[in-house]
Design brief:
Number of domains: 1
Radius of gyration: 23 Å
CATH topology: Ribonucleotide Reductase, subunit A
GO biological process, one term: phenylacetate catabolic process
Oligomer: single chain
Distance between the termini: 40 Å
Structural class: mainly alpha
Strand order of the largest sheet: 2-1-7
GO molecular function, one term: oxidoreductase activity
Number of strands: 7
Protein name: Benzoyl-CoA oxygenase subunit B
CATH architecture: Orthogonal Bundle
InterPro entries: Aromatic_CoA_ox/epox, Benzoyl_CoA_Oase_BoxB, Ferritin-like_SF, RNR-like
Order of helices and strands: HEEHHHHHHHEEHEEHHE
């Protein structure tokens, strides 16, 4: 079997020649029932008997990599797929720039590379756990299907990282794979590694914000790892990015549909004040702004410290590059380069230049913020098209931060430094309160299960999935 031939008939579908590596096959087949136990216990509730119109990876050919059909959730074919190898691929950055890409783990980078893979891998099951109850309150079968699609693909991304751990890190890797099923989102004793993946996702507005903001962080992290000089990691992440695009689509269109419905109701009832629309059973724009503030700020923390020797070491070693490294016009080593970052200076914020190598996290965060801003502008176009005087905005990067330079201060969404007393007095104006969350939850008392029907608080999508109509039976119930 060639390196890109796909064995779909195997117990674990793959294109990595599992049948020729008995030790690896045994390790993964031993882990598989544990994964399925985790899925039953921590995955989507009450989904075992559902038939869901899902896409399943069957190839790594960009022209036909996915197959759509009805699948019972526990029978989804989680597999291991790596993007096709690039002939004579070279390490594109760092001190090993120009050397042949590694096909095995370099001994001197073994522990740090394992840490990178485990940190990324831990996020995948975490999001499934965060979203496990949302099916009970889905706004439509279309949305329920999209939720389950995100869930099964996060599960497959976990398989992708576990494959790397088992294939290249021996006993240490197997122990790490076991541990990823033992940690759980929000568990007080064994939480997930990154705090954003311990936050609850109790309602569908939270889910759509999560898939827009937090899955977008995943896009940038995976793209950086896809530049890695360790070729199996690079190829794994390149294929994961193919699936990740749908998750962000779910987020941007989901929030957009909520905004559209709110604007429609405001026009229908001639409501000028966005805060006055709650009595009509939709989510008011100020509450949407609060949710945006929360999920954006929490996702910013995922990029880590503004100045990081770890990030510098990853880059110098050739393990984790920058977003779209090949398109950047510099020496790809950054030995003398500088980069402008924000820092706290007394009672204000200022920009300063720092060595680019240690500012790599902030560089990636800047690109992420710019990408988020494009989506927010798309939402604002919906509001403008309805003639409503309201604009959603990304808060300043210093707002509501728990990691990095701004974790020790309080700042308003417009970047003004606050005293603790000022924060205590006003933060309820900027972040969702218990009352806000209770109101949003009150709009979602039960699932909408009739094909084509939508909950009152969300507009229908512009089109269905895989050229199917919006009123297609995306989920079948026994």
């Amino acid at each position: 079997m060639s390196a890109i031939s796909v064995d779909l008939n195997a117990r674990i579908p793959n294109n990595v020649n599992l049948s020729e590596n008995k030790r690896l096959l045994k390790a993964l087949e031993s882990w598989q029932p544990k994964f399925l136990d985790w899925w039953r216990e921590m995955g989507p509730v009450d989904s075992e008997r559902l038939q869901v119109y899902l896409r399943t990876a069957v190839s790594v050919d960009p022209g036909g990599w996915a197959h759509f059909d009805y699948v019972r959730m526990p029978e989804y074919r989680w597999g291991i797929f790596l993007a096709p190898p690039e002939p004579d691929r070279r390490i594109p950055f760092g001190e090993h720039k120009g050397e042949p890409a590694w096909q095995e783990v370099p001994g001197e980078y073994r522990s740090v590379l394992r840490r990178l893979i485990v940190t990324q891998g831990d996020t995948e099951p975490a999001s499934v756990e965060q979203q496990r109850h949302l099916g009970k309150t889905c706004p439509s079968l279309y949305d329920l299907r999209n939720l389950f699609q995100v869930n099964v693909e996060e599960g497959r991304h976990l398989w992708a990282m576990v494959y790397l751990l088992d294939a290249y890190f021996g006993r240490d890797g197997r122990e790490e794979a076991e541990a990823m099923l033992e940690r759980h989102s929000g568990d007080p004793d064994k939480p997930r590694i990154l705090q954003a993946f311990n936050e609850p996702t109790p309602d569908w507005l939270s889910f759509f914000m999560f898939t827009f903001f937090t899955d977008r962080d995943g896009k940038f992290q995976l793209a950086s790892l896809a530049e890695s000089g360790f070729d199996p990691l690079s190829r794994t992440c390149r294929f994961m990015l193919t699936e990740e695009a749908h998750h962000m689509f779910v987020g941007i269109t989901g929030v957009g549909r909520i905004i559209q419905r709110t604007c429609e109701v405001m026009r229908e009832h001639r409501i000028d004040d966005p805060a006055e629309v709650r009595g009509h059973g939709v989510i008011d724009l100020p509450t949407i702004q609060k949710y945006l503030n929360f999920h954006f700020s929490v996702s910013l923390d995922l990029f880590g410290q503004e100045l990081s020797t770890n990030a510098a070491n990853y880059f110098t070693a050739g393990l984790k590059g920058r977003f779209q490294e090949a398109k950047l016009e510099d020496d790809h080593q950054l030995k003398d380069a500088e980069y402008e970052i924000w820092e706290v200076a007394g009672d204000s914020l200022r920009k300063v230049r720092r060595p680019a190598l240690t500012a790599l996290n902030e560089m990636l965060r800047d690109q992420y913020i710019a990408d988020c801003a494009k989506g927010v502008e798309r939402w604002n176009r919906i509001i403008r098209e309805h003639g409503i005087d309201f604009e959603l905005r990304l808060p300043h990067r210093a707002f509501h931060r728990r990691i990095g330079t701004f974790s020790e201060i309080q700042a308003s969404p417009d970047g003004r430094l606050l005293t603790q007393a000022e924060w205590d007095q006003h933060h309820h104006e900027w972040l969702p309160t218990e009352a806000d969350r209770a109101y949003v939850a009150s709009l979602m008392p039960e699932a909408v299960r009739e094909p084509g029907k939508m909950a009152h608080w969300i507009a229908p999508p512009a089109r269905g999935i895989n050229d199917r109509p919006v009123d297609f039976e995306y989920v079948r119930f026994d």
